[in-house]
Amino acid sequence: MFRPEKVSFASAEFVGAELGDSFKEAPPFDLLSTYKDSACKVPIIFVLTSGADPTQYLLALGKQQGFNQGDNLKLVSLGQGQGPIAERLMSEGQAKGHWVCLQNCHLSVSWLPRLAKLVESLGSPEAAVSEDFRLWLTTMPTTAFPGTILQNSLKLTQEPPKGMKANVGRSYIDLDLEAFESCAKPTAFKKLMFGLIFFNAVIQERRKYGAIGWNIAYQWMTSDLIFAEQNLKIFLDEDGPIPFVALNAIISDVIYGGRVTDKQDVRLTTAILSTYINTETIDDDAYSYCPSLDHKFRYWAPEEGDVEVYRKYISSFPLVDSPEIFGLHINADISFQTQESNKMLDTIISLQPREGGGGGGKSSDEVVGEIADDLASRMPGTLNEKQADEKTFFKLEDGSTNPLGIFLSHEMHKFNTLIKSMQKMIKELQRALKGLVVMSAQLDAAYSNLIFSQVPGPWGEAGNGYPSLKPLASWFKDFVGRVNFMNDWLTKGPPNSFWISCFFFPQGYFTSALQAYARKYKEPIDLLEFVLTVKPYAGLDDVPEPPADGVYIHGVFMEGARFDPDNNCMAESRPAELFAPHNVMHLMPSRNDAGVDRQEGMYECPFYKTNVRAGTLSTTGHSTNHVCNFLLPSNEDAKHWIRRGCAIISMTND
Questions:
Q1: Residue 182 contacts by C-beta under 8 Å, 6 or more apart in sequence?
Q2: Phi/psi at 326 (nearest 5 deg)?
Q3: What is the DSSP letter of 278?
């Protein structure tokens, strides 16, 4: 495939050409027409999507039809202990002709069978139900939702607005006009309001770029924006100067940050909001949200006016958003398009049958058999401590093994466990293909993985392996390279530079390196930290000798930016280069008793094992993906690289 990132675009064009353009676009959300088609005995289900909240539309429709919240429009959010309340409201609503909305049905799975019985009795001919009664249900997609309700209901969903024009435009359509025109400081309020709505759109649109946009795709809702608008008005209605520090803290850390759980995403929320909620937005008419795009279109907070002034300006937004308006590099478009294509192809693969149609090609058994034979022939042997060089596990003065040697022995055990499990599975799969043993569920899953060039689960992070997003062929090549590196370290002694991406647990390597320095110079290890220097070496082969103190590491890549060795600082990515190879880095342990701020002129760059970035907390107390943060020199403000989503990645995906 020459351009995988273009697959989703080409597929949409193909569908439009074959079936018609109407199949390329989602129909508009029309709650009124759905209501007119409904009946008192037929539930109406909102299938929720991230970033779309139909509650405000339901309240507006209810008001239009004479149903007011708290009076004859009852809302209850399901959860623990809410089932009996919901049942009582349904009973009262059927008798009195109320509207009843049961929100978040997916959060009350244990009560859903009871709801199914209530809906079934609702549809019976003898049930006495007021013609005005309507039952509204909202739920996220879940397999636990009763099929009987789905079969006998009206179903609708609302796609969140896509693109800045649609997202910001919808917010100004839903705006409370009375509040918009009633602030004590109208100029500041309307400009900051525009910035707040723009911020709300930016953080939601960044999600489409995957991990470079957000480590975790958070589910912000319309209510978050409403609360932020209300707090903005409260602060501005007070006398005195505008408290920008407090505003940024309340909005980014409390209202929106309340949903943010990843440490790196917390600082990103703050960095993005600071672009829009600041003094320049109000005082400087030349202030631009994204100066690099001013030659194409200027994004800024328009002069004070009524709501139509802002709607007219929003209507002039470009239809296609550049990644730069979100703070990202133009290369982020390639990442987004590739991600969309991969999702579509993975779905297609998951629907493929085991056997193909007619033809003279090889059967699936033959293909899998050849792959298994090839892997078995190239499988490396286990690592043997008896072959160790004398420098590998040398003893310290107190008779203990050196810290890096201990770390190596731990890693060797993990690699040997993985090698043995792979050898066993391949052997069992070969025997199963010959009919000598029964094909177990695990072997059957591995069979399917090999057909589609995927790494079997037991060889990955969920089994005895390590995190990786590579397809099978490149994964196995990388695996053999890792084993060879470990074997060279074992049999030839410590290398001049360590391939940090090679290890199962790189955090353990960093601790061992600090421990080696602490024992050598009798320093307390809890007072030591690494000071990083980028060296002019491209890789292991270029390193003439190991450092006198500290360690050299290599084999990592930078996403979202690159390191410029000529100027010894971070720089913008080259066009179409998603992952820039990083030079060898010297990690020098150093004490910082004086508490010197080493972050000045630096960017605190997170280091991840894979570019998925998000991880879970393991039993060791460490993230399964995030390793640590490195301080890299930068001529730009650190917030620039934070918005870029810049990070160091241990391996690419190909």
A1: none
A2: -95, 5
A3: S
pLDDT digits (tens, 9 = 90+) for 401-448: 999 999 999 999 999 999 999 999 999 999 999 989 999 999 999 999
Strands 551-554 and 585-591: antiparallel
Domains 31-157 and 164-333 share a fold: no
CA angle 191, 192, 198 (to 5 degrees): 95
Identify whether the C-beta of residue 327 lies closer than 8 Å to the C-beta of residue 289: no
Residue reference for tokens 């000598």: 436
Angle 157-161-164 (CA atoms, 0-180°, nearest 5)? 175
Structure tokens at 153: 């209901």
Confidence of residue 338 (pLDDT cuts 50, 70, 90): confident
Is the CB of residue 466 less than 8 Å from the CB of residue 609?
yes
CATH number for the domain formed by residue range(s) 495-654? 3.10.490.20
How many Å apart are CA 582 and CA 585, to the nearest integer? Answer: 8
Q: Which amino acid is at 169?
A: G
Closest CA to 529 of 590, 609, 438, 466: 590
- Contacts of residue 597, Cβ cutoff 8 Å, sequence gap at least 6: none
**Angle subtended by helix axes 364-378 and 403-433, to nearest 10:** 150
Determine the residue type at 143. T
Predicted local confidence at residue 23, as pLDDT: 78
Asked if the model's pLDDT at residue 146 lies above 70, the reply is: yes
* Alpha carbon distances (Å) from 232 to 197, 437, 631: 11, 69, 35
Q: Provide DSSP, 183-223.
A: -SSHHHHHHHHHHHHHHHHHHHHGGGGGGGT-SS-----HH
Position 209, amino acid: Y
Query: In the structure encoding, which two tokens stand for residue 421, read together?
Result: 């499990």
Q: How many helices (H) and strands (E) are present in the chain, helices listed first?
A: 21, 16
The tens digit of pLDDT for each residue in 173-202 reads 888 889 999 999 999 999 999 999 999 999
Question: In the chain, what are the domain boundaries?
Answer: 31-157, 164-333, 362-494, 495-654
CATH architecture of 164-333: Orthogonal Bundle (1.10)
Torsion region of 291: left, alpha or beta (phi above 0 gives left; psi -120 to 50 gives alpha): alpha
203-to-25, 169, 265, 273, 331 alpha-carbon distances in Å: 23, 15, 11, 9, 18
Q: What is the DSSP letter of 629?
A: E
Q: Are 328 and 560 in contact (CB under 8 A)?
A: yes
Architecture of domain 31-157: 3-Layer(aba) Sandwich (3.40)
